[in-house]
Amino acid sequence: MTVFFEDVSEGDRSEYGSYEVTREEIIRFAEQYDPQWFHVDEERIERESPYGGLIASGWHTAAMTMRMLVEAEFRDAASVGAKGTDELRWWRPVRPGDTLRIETEIVETVPESPERGLVRVRVETYDGDDERVFSMIGNVMYLTRDG
Amino acid sequence: MTVFFEDVSEGDRSEYGSYEVTREEIIRFAEQYDPQWFHVDEERIERESPYGGLIASGWHTAAMTMRMLVEAEFRDAASVGAKGTDELRWWRPVRPGDTLRIETEIVETVPESPERGLVRVRVETYDGDDERVFSMIGNVMYLTRDG
Questions:
Q1: How confident is the model at residue B2 (pLDDT cuts 50, 70, 90)?
Q2: CB distance from B61 to chain A under 8 Å?
Q3: In order of start, what are the domains of chain A with their CATH numbers?
């Protein structure tokens, strides 16, 4: 059943996902998109990283969060993309061996036209110790039933 | 020469980068991190995409922007990661064949301790027609000369 704009309400909450973070994927993502030494250079990390070990690129954490969102929330939604995000924060490093999950809450729904509406959704990502590692407010466009 | 917190000033501007966007990379990124149909399903895109063709995941655009930032601005910087970003916006779709570039401007520098400071940098990504496709304000931590 497709979820349209009219089906989404302020205060709706959900929990989803299980994403296992591997050393190989951390390095592969960072080598392509964020080759700062503290994401890719294991010898230098060993010697001098302030994080005490290999950590994922923040953009990788955002991408893994998106994967969980798509599999759960957007799979059956009449979502047609996002305008952007606000207050994106990387609270704690994500490390190899972490298993991530997400929690979402609809913070606002704004009709924009007869065909579309804006859904503002708070997304928080947690690690296996239930520590919050990432959060943002997404501004997502949904089609209405007439859209 | 390493760029420390003391070397960064409000109003500093730069232009960098040249990133060629390919169909293969758009689909590869989206299949792993953002498998919404309008990023991966070329038959359905042909039939019904509101975007008139394949477009990159917004997180892919963010990641390509980060790659250009790292190659230029962070390669020689005493940057130790970011707290987050504000006002992240996807202004226009990014398509196969686009060549992206970025412009940056330092909007604020905030000393946080004798060892570290926060640099707020506006980042804008443009396509080959000089249309802005992406923007954000990054909150990046830099070491001081004493850090």
A1: confident
A2: no
A3: 5-143 (3.10.129.10)
pTM of the predicted structure, to 2 decimals: 0.95
- Give the residue from chain A lying closest to B82, CA to CA: A90
Higher-confidence residue of A1 and A100: namely A100
Tokens of A94: 């994500």
By the 10 Å C-beta count (0-12 exposed, 13-18 middle, 19+ buried), A115 is classed as: middle
Angle at A79 between CA B22 and CA A113, to 5 degrees: 115
Tokens of B127: 């396509």
Q: With 0-12 CB in 10 A as exposed, 13-18 as middle and 19+ as buried, what is A117?
A: buried
pLDDT of B84 above 80? yes
- Residue A103 banded pLDDT, cuts 50, 70, 90: very high
Nearest to A87 among B34, B51, B86 (CB): B86
**Arithmetic mean of pLDDT over chain B:** 94
Which among B34, B51, B90 has the least Cβ separation from residue A70? B34
Helix (H) or strand (E) holding B90: strand B79-90
Lookup: tokens for A132: 């919050």
pLDDT: which is higher, B76 or B142: B142
